[in-house]
User: Fold these one by one.
Assistant:
Number 1:
Amino acid sequence: MPIAITRGISPRFADCELTHQIRVPIDLLQAEREHAAYADALRGLGLQVIELPASTELPDCVFVEDAAVALPECAVITRPGAASRRPETEAVATALKPWRALLHIEAPGTLDGGDVLVLGKRILVGAGGRSNAEGIAQLGRLLAPWHYSVEAVPLRGCLHLKSAVTRVGEDTLLLNPEWVDAALFAGWRCIAVDPTEPDAANALLTGDRLVYARHHVRTRERLQDASMEPVLVDAGEVAKAEGAVTCCSIICDTA
């Protein structure tokens, strides 16, 4: 059974790091309800959810995706670009250790898991500020024994690569062409987000099912027009913290 590692909402969630968004009030109780429903949705898709406790000291700890990159052969523990987030990796590494051999990004490299898009043996990494050239180069060296290629991808106007593009099917990507160059994805079927929903490119693909934020109504219609029927979750509060559905879990196949 595949596992999904999640982590609770910090009592200090409102103090989260922000780069491209204006800080607005976050409803902590609503964020907790949304996160619990998100975990239930993952269970409903057949995943075993491993829930790590929240930390009062780490406002962004719910965004576990940034702390590690889980691949079939190993898990790479990152070194987040925001210094305040680097202590988040310890709990995530402990949770992954029973399932994967652990490798580590070291200083002066920085890497956020939200920047890492895995397309088979081709891995694209957003070079938008949180992941630096040294971190991307280290990832390439760490994964070379398994014949992965690692490429840096320029970003425009968004925090992470997976803010701009995610995989939504075996051969299909959902992307915002204003934030990432669609020409990078030759050979893939690409669905563009509705222009009124620039942050709608983030979707979580697990197996053949897609988890998607309910508030992206117009882009959801584009997915449905492409014969996709996503599992909808409320994610309005994590969106205020520059987060989305992939950010809140690490999916790891244990078979």
Note: The chain has one domain: 3-252.
Number 2:
Amino acid sequence: MKKLALVILIITLLFVSCSDEFDGPVINFFSGKDRMSPRLITIQTIDESTVVFTFDEFIFRPFITLEKEYKESTCYVDQEKLVVSLSHPLSVMRQTNIYFSVRDNRGNSTTISAPVYGINTKIPNLVINEFSTRGSTNHPDRVELKALTDGNLGGVTLYHGMFFNHTFSFSFPSVEVKRGDYIVVQFQQIPPQHSPLTYYGGSEGLGGNNGVISLYNSPYNEVKDVVLYSNRTSDSDEAYGGFGTKDVYEQVIELTSTDQWVHNGVIRPESAINSDSSTATRSFNRKEEQEDTNSASDWYVVITSGSTFGEKNTTTQYSP
């Protein structure tokens, strides 16, 4: 059975050659000067059928394998970028795999299996507007988005964490939304079927005290919004930057590489939204009439039983 599966895989894939305008001499790997393989930094779908893979150094001599339906595809190398132009548009919702290997000018190679998706050209402007992380039986963990413009949600992805470092994710189906709509992703319990624009994000809940929640245009594309919450300080835990766990710390490191949270080269727990006062019914709410500053000052914890998922935010803040 395993041999049959291998034969089928070979039949349904094909090789695509790339022009390599920047190809140069390959320096002896054993010179000892560079033994680090090229590292993939970003994957970006820039139009309906073009995907760009960006590495941390110039790359050479790519070897690519595509699904058979893309047999007329082409590709080329532009310094640290591998540009793949597919023969027809990618699906927004269906994953397409691109297998390839590249190497640097010292012969260090990297082999990657990359899942890619089509681009949604009608994505609305969205923000994370409310969330709860200490769910109960009657009030499970939830994340609410607010649509600031009309558009379509197809492929928009919510991560518990960041793209490279996350616990789980949820991608939206192709659904039209209007400006002012509230979209809710509920975890741990399947929401009632009659709930409009409410989706089931899975049985796993969000981190109760510390975590990162991020929103992307697609399963891997441009990050749209991020929130960071914590009940720790730099002095509370010596390990992992004060965040207490390796998972959260790695997510924060990735967040630091974006402009989605205010920082001066390092993000500390003190800059996160303080989660001490939150409960199953005291959610984190965005100040809706305020400009987004990508900081904890955009957020507050509402009064007990003040959660309003799917509706306009409660303005009354909890006071201990």
Note: The chain has two helices and 21 strands.
